[in-house]
Design goal:
Elements: H1 3-22, H2 39-51, H3 68-92, H4 98-106, H5 111-114, H6 126-141, H7 147-160, H8 165-184, E1 195-196, E2 199-200, H9 201-209, H10 215-227
Antiparallel strand pairs: 1-2
């Protein structure tokens, strides 16, 4: 699968998930229930969650090791909303061809670097990473929004945290399945249980992704695990 095909597949999956969750036409800025959508707000709120994945609080144990697997999950959560923002922005330009959007995305500065061999994250980079996260928050919350600058900042952050395009794709597939699973099991209604016998569903997903990458089989394994939740 080429890099363009990977991007196109993720855009297609995101379109499907958003259509099912928010209703067809969500790109106009509202859900099927008429609720306002702000993907830029979604991005910077996910960034705030990502910051809390690091031991940044000076009044607590600042030597606690970083759970890099969880960091990667949070970065992929941000990617879901960036993809959604892309689809929304291009729909406003009357462009819905996922291949064309993928080609534009691949032309962004630093994308080629993002496609190279992934690097190992380092605890010594923590404060630099926190600055990169806050830069993304700034890109989304201020005036003069520039989608290309946001994407470049995202690729820098992802690379520092040990992700490349192929690792992002692997985790994205898993998290896309989990998001659909959540919606199918009452997430929007507030009945879904995110903690499964003391373990967060993201951690369950990580365990499944060690041995499985097919959409349907990931879903089946989540279903099986969820049946045992008390």
């Amino acid at each position: 699968m080429t890099n363009i095909q990977i991007l196109e597949n993720m855009l297609t999956l995101q379109q499907k998930l958003n259509d099912e969750t928010n209703g067809v036409g969500w790109e106009d800025g509202y859900t099927k229930e008429g609720k306002l959508i702000s993907f830029r707000r979604c991005i910077y709120m996910e960034c705030a969650e990502l910051i809390d994945s690091f031991a940044w609080k000076h009044w607590k144990n600042i030597s606690a090791p970083t759970n890099w697997d969880n960091v990667c999950i949070e970065i992929v959560d941000i990617w879901h909303f960036i993809l959604s923002l892309l689809l929304e922005e291009y729909k406003a330009k009357h462009i819905t061809d996922k291949n064309l959007i993928a080609q534009d995305l691949a032309s962004v500065s630093l994308f080629n670097d993002f496609c190279k061999e992934k690097s190992k994250p380092s605890e010594s980079d923590t404060y630099g990473i926190l600055n990169d996260i806050e830069l993304i928050i700034h890109k989304c919350s201020g005036f003069g929004f520039d989608l290309g600058e946001l994407l470049s900042a995202y690729f820098i952050l992802a690379m520092k945290c040990g992700l490349n395009l192929h690792q992002l794709y692997k985790i994205y597939i898993g998290k896309n399945v989990l998001n659909k699973f959540r919606q199918d099991h009452g997430y929007k209604e507030g009945t879904y249980k995110k903690i499964w016998n003391g373990v967060e569903d993201n951690e369950i997903l990580n365990q499944i992704l060690e041995n499985e990458l097919k959409f349907d089989l990931i879903y089946e394994k989540l279903e099986l695990a969820y049946k045992g939740v008390k």
